Amino acid sequence: MKVEFKSDIAVVWVIMGIFMILASATIDYKIPEISTDILTTLVAAQTTIFAIVFSVVVVAVQLSTSRYSPRVVGLFKSDKEYKTTIGIFGVSILFSLSTLYVSEIVGKTTLSFLVFGSGWFAGFAFIALYHFVDKILEQTTPEGILDRIEETLEPNDIVKKAEEAADSTKNDPYLVPVSIINSSITDQDTPAVCRGLRIIGSSTENLIKEENITELDNDGQVKNSLEELCANRLPNTIKKAADTGLQQESSSGLSSLEKVGKAAAKENLETTTLYSLQGFGKVISTLEFDKASEEVRGDAIEKSGNVIAEAVENDCFKAAGSGIRVLAIEASNSIETRDSTQNNLFHYSILTMKIIPETFDDLLSKKEDGISEQYIDWTHGLDHSTTDNGQKMSTEIRSLWYCYTSLSQITSAHIRYEEKSDSRQVNWGFVAEGWAKGFRFLTNSDLDLLLQLWLGTILYLDYLRFESVNHVMKNGNIMIRIDPSDELLSSTYDSILSGEIDPQYHIDNLQLGSDHVSDISISTSPRPVTDRDCSFEEYIENKIERDCAEI
Questions:
Q1: Domain count, the chain
Q2: How many CB atoms lie within 10 A of CB 342?
Q3: How many beta carbons lie within 10 A of that of residue 531, not counting itself?
Q4: Quick one: 346 and 444 in the same domain?
Q5: Domain check: are 302 and 334 in the same one?
Q6: 431 in Cβ contact with 474 (< 8 Å)
Q7: What element of type H or E holds 376?
């Protein structure tokens, strides 16, 4: 549109300029005698047409704002052609008025030249006005609005608007586009919603890939805009589409979130990658439990796994580990809020059987060899090598710990759901396979104490299954899926009884809190399977006695 506008104006400018020169040099000099009438008519015509046309434009803009969002006005005001057209028309009218003013004091030749110049300016202004109105009317359609959005979401424009948004009177660069998409969801305009979400995803991906933009992980307005987009705006839009029954539109939003997360991971932008995973977590947690929403939830879990895999591949260990934790907490919250009729738990199995174990395996393959576990507290995620009270583990080791705690978190949520709802809808075979995979991966590593904690947790789950009078965890026998050595079992028993590891901790206590990257907060809800005939330690001692008797 811009190229056509400029080329047409240039052609008209040249043609009318040549005509003016030839006409003013050859035409009969009767023009000065009627110059006043010509100029008066020209000014009146320009003023009238200008007023009528802009009144129509104002009405069109008002209709757009009522349909989409009041913030759409900003798109029209920021259009450079809007200011250019007003400027051209103003100059044209001013030139005609000036000519009329000096018509009594200039010579005939000069007056003829000025009259033709006024006509030339008027023609030029009308052509400019035509193109402007045509563009404005096109922008009142969904396609035109989206074209305009695409123009305003160039990387440099996003950065500029994000920095301007530090002033509360300015809008965040993503505020208007998301508002328009939400309005299109209300209208159930599938093509507009899907295209708008694709534009946001592609534009943000281009922003991340820009070579001159290297500070996205540092504090600043661009970072704040990306956080708001990934952690709030897109998840809210995806949920709105799902609540409206627009599954395709929800999938488009998830694809945009995935695109942003993977692009950030490839550029090693840990914080931005984590923002996208927080967005996925919010979708998983807040969606309803109808059939369409369950499908969207499954899609969100699948796509979040792709982002985590990309993060591990590009050594974004903090984002991968913290992201796993985010997903586990939000998935657990979603499971906890269900009642007995909302029993479609299949999609959470993607986390327990696939995403968490595979991420755990990838992280194990990336860790350095020969890491000493002497001062590591795997139960609480602390490293006591430098301080008495302990400090956080290194990023790589902590990401492994997050995988363990996340699998424990979701498993605990499943147990609590079965107890609360008295429903046996959990596929414990999937959960058991996730624990078995992790155990097999650990047996090939040098993390002996973590292996003991992992096996100890499997033993604790076996104990809960044994103690449950309501047959919780039916078909969830993990021990039959693994083959620990006698030596490993013996060392694990010793570590449990001595208190060196506590496999009960993350099953009995749920992780809560909205700030998923900070330290854990623990729930005060009762531990699962509260009615127990013996303690876990007694159960372990009995197993030791039985093993000794068999020998």
A1: 3
A2: 18
A3: 8
A4: yes
A5: no
A6: no
A7: strand 376-377
- Asked whether residue 546 is domain-assigned, the answer is no
Query: How many angstroms separate the CA atoms of 547 and 551, rounded?
Result: 6
Whether 324 is in a domain gets the answer yes
Instruction: Name residue 26's amino acid.
Output: T
Report the DSSP beta bridge partners of residue 383.
376, 391
Residues 353, 393: contact at Cβ < 8 Å? no
What tokens appear for 457 in the block?
């947790």
Who's near 294: CB < 8 A, 6+ residues apart? 287, 344, 347
Same domain, 252 and 348: no
In the chain, the amino acid numbered 380 is: H
Query: What are the helix (H) ranges across 153-189?
Result: 155-164, 175-186
- Round to whole Å and give the CA distance between 418 and 294: 19
Give the long-range contacts of residues 14-18, CB within 8 A, separation 24 or more: 16/119, 16/120, 16/123, 16/124, 17/120
pTM, 2 dp: 0.80
Neighbouring C-beta atoms of residue 164, cutoff 10 Å: 14
- ∠ CA(446), CA(451), CA(454), 5° rounding? 155
**Measured between alpha carbons, how far is 24 from 106 in angstroms, rounded to an integer?**
15
Stretch 431-453: mean pLDDT: 94
| pLDDT tens per residue, range 307-328 | 999 999 999 999 999 999 999 9
